[in-house]
Every structure is written in structure tokens, then in C-alpha cells.
Design goal:
The complex is a heterodimer. Chain A is built from five helices and five strands. By secondary structure, chain A is α/β, with parallel strands linked by helices. Chain A is globular, with a radius of gyration of 13 Å. Chain B contains twelve helices and nine strands. Chain B starts with a helix and ends in a 10-residue tail after the last strand. Chain A: Keywords: Phosphoprotein, Two-component regulatory system. Chain A: One of its GO terms (biological process) is phosphorelay signal transduction system.
């Protein structure tokens, strides 16, 4: 059974890139467009990994990560936070929210894939 | 023209301004009197002081003149007394001569001796007139003298007649019985007069001496008072000028240093007080201006930060898709397409770098950049930078060298930002150097590290060295035009170094390469406050 990755991202173009990237290595991608959606999808589908953007409508990535990690049945799901170009402090915030890894935009697709693979193999 | 208003302005009295000028003026109304307040201008103060000194000088002169007049009067008095005494003595002399004359005429009764006696009588009249002229104040005694003389002359005349009549015995008898006693009486009277005059003269000389001493003391006292008063006035005036000038001077220095909140307080109500009030209001205006400028600058930085963020989102998509295309996710691209995709990637990354620079700088300027302080290894930091610039140096056939002392203890700072600073310097060095080498060096100092990047590029003219750390400034020549760039890199390096409480400098000579160095504390525990 192929691994399922939840991508939380509000920009369709970015989702498409990830869709294509993940498909190319045979991962299944499920989507959420905001923090609240991420919580619902994570609970309903319990993905193998979550790729969480930080700047999200309704509920930002930090808060969504914090809430997911606060739930015992979801805590095991690795979360990779994707920040926009960071100016310091973002990494600390992401770690504080409880994420497992941290990737800063602009990321190279190949490098992102390497990070994802670390948690899925 | 209103005369009253005119005179008040001369005395330095001015009507209170209808509108209070600044907070400092509020207190002054307490000193106001019936809507007027005493505001002597500096000119009035100086005028008053000089007037006071002038008046002292005049009073010294007046006192001197009065003393002189008194001395003159005393001298005249003494001269008068001397004349008096002389006249009295003359009279005594005459009496004696008359007695001699009469005795001679009695001894040798002839016309010659008689003529002498008669001439002497005339002389008497003259001397008597003279005495009554010089001694007008001795009326009682003089009248007595005059009477006695009249009698004396009558007796003399009588004796002359007796001698002429050949009655020598009678004449002798008369001389003995009448003339002698009369002469004695006259002498006593004139002696009395002389004594009085002499006593007056002694008193006069004494008084004159006293007057002299008195006026000496008076002049000395007035001179002393003038001296002290001049000193006090001079001191007061200079204090009332120099002190406020110093206060205003200090205030201006503080304003120049950027302290707009302060107020200059001088006690003066004159031109200097007005000047201080003026400086204060100018300071207020400057402060407002400064605030609005600061706000405008903040808005600008905020706008730039937002804008560059907005620009990056679509650019990231462009880069993402072109990377996927290059990676063959959508099938292997033909060679021509691959080359085009690589150009898209290269230009896209360049554009992203520029946008990120603008974002960095605007965030720093908007005060939004916070250093994340952690322990880091200097060696590792340099290695990271080295790894990322190596391909750039290799592309240009430049040798890239590193000199980092081994075994440095862990440093503390924002590793990512310091790496960015070093990266910018090395990137610039590679960009502007066409052949030769670029060296990255680290020197460990006391509690600090100095990172240096040395190149063999064209070097930077001294005049340009001061400008290159300002944003949007590049050395303006054909080389930089050919190399491109927005001129933000060095400005960012400078800000990052300053946020670490360090400093950056350049050593360069045109045609002899450049060496950029920055010093940062070895262990930074707290972000430096931005200035």
C-alpha cells in the first residue's frame, strides 16, 4: 500500500507541484487548504506524513501542528513544516510547535523529497 | 503714537502676548504686574549697567568739584584774614609812626617835621578805610577803633596847632596826657583784632585740613564702591549672558545627537530667553518631522516586506515547476528544452535572491528581524559558505582558499545570518574578481572573531569606500554595470554585523584588490539594540 502524504497548502500552484512530485515517486497525496481542514483530514484519514505550510488561512501551520501533536492518536504522524523565506525565529517557532522537520522555501523539490523519504522508509 | 506705550517699551516693559508662547511662559505671568511683565532686553540691561557705572564716575567728579570749591573758599578766607591782619598791623605801625612824628615835631618844631605829622594824618584816613573794607564783620570793634582814631587824630591836630603856636609845653603836656593813653588804647584794640583774625586763620587752616581729609576719604570710598559695583555688575551681566548661552549650546548638542524630547530652560526674559524659546519650538518641529519621517520609513519598509513576500509566491511556483520539468517528472525533456529550463531556473533564482535581499533589508529596517542566538562552530560556518560558493569560484577559475585556526571554541550568535553575511562578501568577491584568488580568513581575538574576505579584484576607490555599505549604493563604474546587482548585499551584511554588536570595514586600493572584514563578539548573549 502506497504511503499517503497530507499536504496542507493554500496555493493551488504549490499543491500541483507537490502533487506531481509525490506522484512521480508513487506516494498518494491527500490535501487540505487550511489549518482547520488539516486537523479534520488528519483525523479522518490518518496519513503517514504531513507537509504543513505555515502561512495558512483560518488556522496557521504552527497552531495546526500544535493541535495535531496534542492528540495522542495523531501524535505519531511526522510533520514537516514548510516556512516561507525565513528571517530567523521561524525554525524555533516550528520546533516549539512540535514539528519533526523543517524546510524553508524556496526548497528544491529533490531535497524536499529526500526529507520526506527519511520519514517514510 | 502713544507716548505711554513708547516709554514702557524703552524701560523694557512689554504688554503680555495674547497667546502664551510655549509652556515656559506660563510661570512668567506670575511676575506680571497689571498685565505687564518686566522683560528687560539684553540691550537695556547693558545700558543700565553702563549708566550705573557712568553715574558713579559723575558722582566722583561732582564730589571732587565740591571739595575743590570748599578748599578754594577756605583759601580765600585765609587770604582775607591775612589781609586783615596786615591792615591791622599797618594801623599799629601808623600809630607808632605818628607817635614818633609827634615826638620829633616836639623836639624839633619846624615845618618839615610838622608836615610829616600832617601827612601821617592823611595816611591814617586811608588805612582806616582799608581796614573797614577788609574787616566788614568786625563792626563793633572797628567803630570803636574809628572813634579812637578820630580822637587820636584830633589830639595830634591839636598838638600840631600848639607847636605852630609856639606852645611847646602845652603840646608836650597834651602828648603825654592824651596821645600816649590813646595810642595804648588803639594798640590794645588792634591787638584784639589781630588776635581774633589769627585765631580765625588757625581755625580756617584746621578746617581746610579736615575738609581735605574728609574729601580724600569720600573719594576713596566712592571709588571703592564703584570698583565693587562694577565687578558685581560685570559679573551679573556676563553670567546672565554666558550661562544661558552655555545652556543653549548644550541643548543644541543634545538636539544634534537626536534628543528631541528635551527642553532648554534659561531664566532669562531677554533676547536669550527668546532664543531658547525659539530653539525649543524648532526642536518640537524637528521632533514632529523626525517622527513623520520615521513613520514614513517604517511604512516603506513594511510595504517592501509585504511586496517582496507577494512577489515570491508566484516565483516559487515558477521555480518549482521548472525544477520538476528538469528532473523529468513529466518525462525526459529534450536537450534544447533542458537548456531553456536551466535558464528559467537560473534567472528565477537570481530574481528570488534580489527579492529576498529587499525583504531582508526592509525587515531589518522595520525592526522585524530578530536574531536567533545559538552556539555554532566557526569552522562549520565557514565550511557551509565555502561549499555553497565553490561552484561559483570554479565557474570563473578562481582559487578559493580558507584559513581558519583549528580548535576554536564554540561561538554564539545567529549562525544563519552570519553565514549569509559571509556568503554575501564572498559572493561579491567572486563576482568582481576575474582572475586570481579569493581568501576567507578568520582571526580569533579577545572575545571576538574577525571574518575577512580578500580578493584580487579591481579594488575600490577611497571615495567609494564610505558609500558602499549604504543600501542601493554601488561603485558606479563600467565593471559594476556589467556585473549587475541591486547594491543591497553589503547593506545587509552591515546590518547583520551591527545587530551582533560588531563592525565592518574595508581595506582596498584601486587596482590592488579588496579586503572586507567584520568583527563580531565571540559569544553574543543578547541582540544589540539597533540605532
Amino acid at each position: 500500500m502506497s504511503k499517503r502524504v497530507l499536504v496542507v497548502e493554500d496555493q493551488e500552484d504549490n499543491r500541483q507541484i507537490l502533487r506531481d512530485l509525490l506522484a512521480s515517486v508513487g506516494y498518494e497525496m491527500i490535501e487540505a487548504h487550511d489549518g482547520e481542514g488539516a486537523l479534520a483530514v488528519a483525523r479522518a484519514q490518518s496519513p503517514d506524513l504531513i507537509l504543513m505550510d505555515i502561512q495558512l488561512p483560518i488556522l496557521d501551520g504552527y497552531e495546526a501542528t500544535r493541535r495535531i501533536k496534542a492528540q495522542s492518536d495523531l501524535r505519531h504522524i511526522p510533520i514537516i513544516v514548510v516556512t516561507s523565506y525565513a528571517l530567523g525565529g521561524d525554525e524555533e517557532k516550528a520546533r516549539a510547535a512540535g514539528c519533526d522537520a523543517y524546510v524553508a522555501k524556496p526548497y528544491s523539490a529533490r531535497k524536499l523529497l529526500e526529507t520526506i523519504n527519511r520519514y517514510l522508509t | 503714537m502713544n507716548l505711554e506705550a513708547d516709554s514702557t517699551s524703552f524701560l523694557g516693559l512689554r504688554p503680555l502676548p495674547a497667546r502664551s508662547r510655549g509652556s515656559g511662559d506660563g510661570a512668567s505671568t506670575k511676575n506680571g504686574f497689571l498685565g505687564f511683565e518686566l522683560r528687560p532686553s539684553l540691550r537695556t540691561k547693558l545700558l543700565m549697567a553702563f549708566l550705573a557705572i557712568e553715574m558713579l564716575l559723575v558722582s566722583v567728579g561732582v564730589i571732587g568739584l565740591l571739595s575743590l570749591r570748599e578748599a578754594d573758599q577756605r583759601a580765600n578766607q585765609v587770604v582775607g584774614l591775612q589781609q586783615k591782619i596786615e591792615a591791622y598791623r599797618q594801623m599799629q605801625h601808623n600809630t607808632l609812626r605818628q607817635l614818633y612824628g609827634v615826638s620829633t615835631a616836639l623836639a624839633f618844631p619846624n615845618e618839615t617835621t610838622l608836615a610829616v605829622v600832617l601827612r601821617q594824618i592823611n595816611q591814617f584816613g586811608y588805612d582806616l578805610d582799608r581796614v573797614s573794607f577788609v574787616a566788614k564783620d568786625e563792626v563793633a570793634l572797628l567803630n570803636q577803633v574809628r572813634e579812637e582814631y578820630a580822637r587820636f587824630i584830633a589830639v595830634v591836630s591839636h598838638i600840631v596847632d600848639l607847636i605852630r603856636g609856639g606852645r611847646a609845653a602845652e603840646a608836650k603836656q597834651s602828648e603825654f596826657a592824651e596821645l600816649g593813653p590813646l595810642a595804648d588804647k588803639l594798640e590794645r584794640l588792634t591787638n584784639q583784632l589781630v588776635n581774633r583774625a589769627e585765631a580765625d586763620m588757625v581755625a580756617g587752616i584746621d578746617a581746610s585740613r579736615q575738609t581735605y581729609v574728609k574729601s580724600q576719604i569720600l573719594v576713596a570710598a566712592v571709588a571703592l564702591v564703584s570698583f565693587v559695583l562694577t565687578l558685581v555688575l560685570g559679573h551679573a551681566i556676563s553670567r546672565s549672558v554666558i550661562d544661558p548661552v552655555r545652556i543653549i549650546h548644550d541643548g543644541l548638542n543634545r538636539i544634534a545627537a537626536g534628543d528631541f524630547a528635551q527642553r532648554i530652560e534659561v531664566p532669562n526674559r531677554d533676547e536669550l530667553g527668546e532664543l531658547a524659546a525659539h530653539v525649543n519650538s524648532t526642536c518640537d518641529e524637528l521632533q514632529q518631522l523626525y517622527r513623520s519621517l520615521e513613520e514614513a520609513s517604517r511604512h516603506k519598509s513594511q510595504f517592501l516586506a509585504n511586496m517582496s513576500h507577494e512577489l515570491r509566491t508566484p516565483l516559487n511556483a515558477v521555480l518549482g515547476f521548472s525544477e520538476l520539468l528538469l528532473d523529468g517528472i513529466y518525462g525526459d525533456p529534450p536537450e534544447k528544452m533542458r537548456s531553456a529550463l536551466e535558464r528559467i531556473q537560473r534567472n528565477g533564482r537570481h530574481l528570488l535572491g534580489l527579492i529576498n535581499d529587499v525583504l531582508d533589508l526592509s525587515k531589518i529596517e522595520a525592526g522585524q528581524l530578530r536574531l536567533s542566538l545559538a552556539d555554532y562552530s566557526v569552522e562549520e560556518l565557514v565550511n557551509v559558505v565555502h561549499t555553497s560558493v565553490e561552484p561559483l569560484a570554479a565557474d570563473k577559475n578562481l582559487s578559493l582558499r580558507i584559513a581558519v585556526p583549528a580548535g576554536l571554541p564554540p561561538a554564539r550568535g545567529d549562525e544563519r545570518r552570519l553565514a549569509q553575511a559571509l556568503f554575501n562578501l564572498v559572493g561579491n568577491a567572486i563576482k568582481f574578481t576575474d582572475r586570481g584568488e579569493v581568501r576567507i580568513e578568520v582571526e580569533a581575538g579577545v572575545d571576538s572573531y574577525v571574518f575577512s574576505v580578500q580578493d584580487t579584484g579591481p579594488g575600490i576607490d577611497e571615495a567609494d569606500q564610505a558609500r558602499i555599505f549604504q543600501e542601493f549604493q554601488q561603485v558606479d563604474n563600467s565593471i559594476t554595470k556589467a556585473k549587475g546587482g541591486a547594491g543591497l548585499g553589503l547593506a545587509i551584511v552591515k546590518r547583520i554585523v551591527e545587530m551582533h554588536g560588531g563592525q565592518i570595514w574595508i581595506e582596498s586600493r584601486l587596482g590592488h584588490g579588496a579586503r572586507f572584514s567584520f568583527l563580531v563578539p565571540a559569544r553574543l548573549e543578547q541582540q544589540a539594540t539597533q540605532t
